[in-house]
Amino acid sequence: MSRLFDTRPGDDGLPGPERRQAVLALVLGTLMAVVDTTMVNIALPSIAVSLDVSASRAVWVTNLFQIVCAAFLLVFAALSALVSRRRLYVAGVGVFTLAALGSALSTSFESLLVFRALQGLGAAATLSIGPAIYRSIFPSRLLGSALGLSAMVVAGGYAAGPAIGGLLLSVAEWPWLFALHLPLGCVALSLAWRALPREKGRWHGFDGVGALLSVVMLASLFLALDAIGHRAPAWQVAAGVVISVTAAVLFVQRQRRASFPLLPLSLFQEPRFSLAVCASGLAFIGQGLAFVALSFLYQQEMGFTPLQTAWLFTPWPLAIMLVGPVAGRLADKLNPSVIASTGLLLLMMGFASLALLEADAGVLDGLWRTALCGLGFGLFQPPNNREMMASTPAALSASASGMMSTTRTVGQSFGVALVGAFLAVGLPVQATLWVGGAACVLSLVASLARMPLAGAAQARRRAANREAAPTPSSSRTGRLK
After folding, report:
1. Is the CB of residue 321 less than 8 Å from the CB of residue 153?
2. Which CATH superfamily is domain 15-197 in?
3. What ranges does the record give for the region Disordered, renumbered to this chain (predicted)?
4. CA–CA distance, 438 with 290 (Å, rounded to integer)
5. What is the Cα–Cα distance from 337 to 342, expressed in whole angstroms?
6. Which of 144, 288, 424, 475 is deepest in the core (most CB within 10 A)?
7. Alpha helices, H only, 231-362
8. What does the radius of gyration of the chain's CA atoms come to, in whole angstroms?
9. More confident residue, 367 or 169
10. pLDDT tens digits for 73-100?
11. What pLDDT does residue 58 have?
């Protein structure tokens, strides 16, 4: 870990001590946003009883947060060029923290939903530009390691959320789940304001029409996916899909002629970026699908209790936490596509082993299969994210970061919707796991397709590093002077 904060001659990014504080600000902001969803899920039954609403309505405490967050990821990524990434990140943490206080003090379901929507806005602001800020504070030679750290933080947040929620609810009421964000938010605000790189905003040229179309496109898509997951009438699903597709067509047309496009389409002219986006989206479809399908498999098919099911899930994020930083460091030295493709191969094997799991299998049988999936995903994600960020010009890193976050969110939500659709028509839950494995196969195809391109980029990076490195004679001369 200490190598992340060393400084060498010719390094871009922040010096080591400043880098450490900036990373802590990013880690705290990301943890608050990621932990929130899984932590609050545990409290939904308590919220329903306390505020006298049905369980189906209480689900919107989580759904609204996720929909608003997903809908504004691209908007905030583009807005960061206007006001600077530092200001936007600070504003996002501030809005999230204040809205968490509002959620904690809410005495009605309607006011809680308003503050949850505001929390979603704050989370979108921080998550949309997090990878871009990592790129600006770390030297290029450590970009993979930095994104490995980011993957570890996200996985740790998902793993810790249910445990934190359960622990707090055992000694306090549900408002304290939101109040927990207050001290963390204050520390993150202070660190972000002091340590994140200062940069000038553009102060003109924001694509407001594109932003509106982006919000409509993503919000209607998520409403349609949510309708599938809750087995809503077919016309609701169809209406959401039609609105989303129409907005998507208009959005692309707008981006082609806008002076300051919300999402520069030139990003997708780089094959490494486009293939990394495809690989990421397909892999996250598999992960989102698995997290829901395994709940049904372990409890309904295999008869495990909810507590046992929670333990069976744990190896997945824990494996990502352990392997992610290692995969990121390897991606700085080796061909990232080779590492990512190896991870996808292991993920495919993990899905196949879970789909073949017998109903009378024991806990250990489930644990090693889930761990295999986590190992594969941990090897895949940081190198693939490195490809997404490193293959784009620095000026477009915020847009690439927003696209990365949007791809992750849409992929996971689509996987969840697939499980709902399969269960709605009476298909066995194992069938969804085979679909997850098929998504990983397609992701592997995309990853392998960019392998020669990633290898060539790695060779250029090594050559540039050799040219930038000081020679022994020049180092001695510098010391004599």
Report:
1. no
2. MFS general substrate transporter like domains (1.20.1250.20)
3. 462-481
4. 12
5. 8
6. 144
7. 234-257, 271-296, 306-313, 315-333, 336-355
8. 22
9. 367
10. 888 888 887 888 888 999 999 999 999 9
11. 80
Distances 233 to 312, 361, 376, 382 between C-alpha atoms, Å: 34, 37, 37, 39
Given the candidates 1.10.357.20, 1.20.1250.20, 3.30.450.20, 2.40.128.110, the CATH classification of the domain at 264-463 is 1.20.1250.20
Q: What is the pLDDT of residue 104?
A: 93
List phi, psi (to 5°) of 230: -105, 15
Q: CB-hemisphere CA count at 13 Å for 64?
A: 17
The one-letter amino acid code at 425 reads V
Position 181 confidence tier, pLDDT thresholds 50, 70, 90 = very high
- What integer pLDDT is reported at residue 103 of this predicted model? 94
pLDDT at residue 98, as a whole number = 96
Asked if residue 216 lies in contact with residue 242, where contact means CB atoms within 8 angstroms, the answer is no
Chain centroid, CA 107 distance in Å: 31
Report how far residue 74's alpha carbon sits from residue 210's, in angstroms, rounded to the nearest whole number. 10
CB 321 within 8 A of CB 432: no
At 164, the amino acid letter reads I
Residue 158 CB coordination number (10 Å) = 19
Report whether pLDDT(165) > 70: yes
* 15-197 and 264-463 have identical folds: yes
Span between the terminal Cα atoms of the chain, in Å = 33
Which two tokens mark 423? 């269960």
Yes or no: say if 452 and 292 are a contact pair by the CB < 8 Å rule: no
CA–CA separation, 471 and 26 (whole Å): 35
Write down the pLDDT at residue 438.
94
Collect all residues with Cβ–Cβ distance below 8 Å to 228 and sequence separation of at least 6.
Answer: 237, 417, 418, 420, 421, 424
Helix, strand, coil % in the chain, rounded to nearest 5 = 85, 0, 15
What is the spatial distance between Cα 327 and Cα 121, in angstroms, rounded to a whole number? 31
For residue 433, which of 362, 326, 338, 347 has the smallest C-alpha distance?
347
**Can you give the pLDDT at residue 481?**
40
What letter represents residue 330's amino acid?
L
For the chain, which residues make up each domain, given as ranges? 15-197, 207-259, 264-463
| Residue type, position 165, single letter | G
Closest CA to 446 of 268, 286, 273, 285: 273
Question: Contact, 126 vs 96, CB < 8 A?
Answer: yes
